[in-house]
Amino acid sequence: MSNKSRARLTGQPTGGSTAQLTHRQQQILDLIRRHIRETGYPPTRAEIAEAFGFRSVNAAVDHLKALERQGVITLQPGASRGIRLLEQVEDTALLPVIGRVAAGSPILAEEHVEDRYAVDPSLFRPRADYLLRVQGASMRDAGILDGDLLAVHRCQEARNGQIVVVRIDDEVTVKRFRRHARWPYRVQLLPENPDFQPIAVDLRRQPLVVEGLGVGVLRLTATGSCSSSNC
């Protein structure tokens, strides 16, 4: 872990103009952000309606107009993808905070989202996609403590030595990744605490899914401020 640096983070759940959004409006805003990040352009009204199971495009339009009134987007009439995030919203990502993950369900399923935090995206490289609330002390010596928020970049591959979020038999854990050079089907998940034992995985017999890379840690102090460090 690198030396601690001051986080440009509120240290509190998202506020400002987004604080007045309904749960559905926040979901739609998150969808717009994700679509722009992954494709480079915003979704159409029809794509939003399909994503949320609306019976008509008009329902999506109504939510978009509400977001425009809240001052977080602007709409361009007559353009199917005429949605633009305002500058102050683009500069800050709203990262979901993931708590306990239910067996068999996607890690970013809505029922796992405890909260959302406004985070400066320049804090982490590569960019963080979500925050995972750490449970336990197995990564203590890497500076990842019980209750910390681990910033995670979504990916499906890992290199030796990287701190990873992995799923084994529907259990999610944070460990350091090591694959055997001669027998690549043998993987060890290494704790950073001598009180814990490594987890040995034989990929021929036991599935292992990499959910993402740990790219940093956020920690709320007793005063409510927040510090960060990079993995």
From TrEMBL:
Keywords: Autocatalytic cleavage, DNA damage, DNA repair, DNA replication, DNA-binding, Hydrolase, Repressor, SOS response, Transcription, Transcription regulation. Gene3D superfamilies: Umud Fragment, subunit A (2.10.109.10), Winged helix-like DNA-binding domain superfamily/Winged helix DNA-binding domain (1.10.10.10). GO terms for biological process: DNA repair; DNA replication; negative regulation of DNA-templated transcription; proteolysis; SOS response. Residues 45-65 bind DNA. Residues 11-24 have a biased composition (Polar residues). Transmembrane segments: none annotated. The record marks A103, G104 as: Cleavage. It comes from the Bacteria. It catalyses: Hydrolysis of Ala-|-Gly bond in repressor LexA. Residues 96-203 form the Peptidase S24/S26A/S26B/S26C domain. Represses a number of genes involved in the response to DNA damage (SOS response), including recA and lexA. In the presence of single-stranded DNA, RecA interacts with LexA causing an autocatalytic cleavage which disrupts the DNA-binding part of LexA, leading to derepression of the SOS regulon and eventually DNA repair. This is LexA repressor. It comes from Thiohalocapsa marina.
